[in-house]
Amino acid sequence: MCTLSVVMSVVVQNLHHRIPAFGSLPRFIHKVICHWLAWLLCMSRPEKCKCKSRVLVDGRVRSRVNDQETALKKKDPEEDPGADVRQDDTEKLLLDVLAELKRITKKMTEDAEAEVEANEWKFAAMVVDRLCLCVFSLYLVVATVSVFVHMYKNRLST
């Protein structure tokens, strides 16, 4: 029993410390562990990720950034013959800032997706850990009761 306990602890730790680079949680395992087994053990996810609202806000910001970038690119220096060199430098700087903002937004979105995937692995580890707790607790109760019953029967027979 001790060996099984150690093995299951290693399995739970392995699941808990998985990262998306190792791969995503297979659909079948996700369905069995995160839905059915979690329901059977009366478990729910600790906290829903607020990534959807963040993506919605990012989408709004992204559309505004794209509109501004389009407006800056459409501006033709020939239309405004009095355009100053400083204005061109400012537009180039703004385009560089927009490019940097796009890169940062992309990185944040990738990090949010990786966090969601890591949370899936962690929830699966929590469910397996709870299952092990229930199985080991049941085993201990049954073993204890059987020892007491055996001891009681031996006492009656003597």
Question: What does this molecule look like?
Answer:
There is one protein chain. The chain is an all-alpha fold. The chain folds into 2 domains: 1-44, no CATH class; 49-121. It has helices spanning 2-16, 27-40, 51-74, 85-157.
Describe the secondary-structure layout.
Blueprint: H1 2-16, H2 27-40, H3 51-74, H4 85-157
Helix pairs in contact: 1-4, 2-4, 3-4
Alpha carbon gap, first and last residue: 32 Å
**Cα radius of gyration in angstroms:** 29 Å
Number of helices: 4
**Strand portion, in percent?**
under 5%
Average residue pLDDT:
79
Helix content: over 70%
| DSSP strand count | 0
Q: From N to C, what is the helix and strand string?
A: HHHH
Number of domains: 2
The parts where pLDDT drops under 50 for at least 5 residues are none
Largest sheet data: none
Shape: rod-shaped
Based on secondary structure, the structural category is: mainly alpha
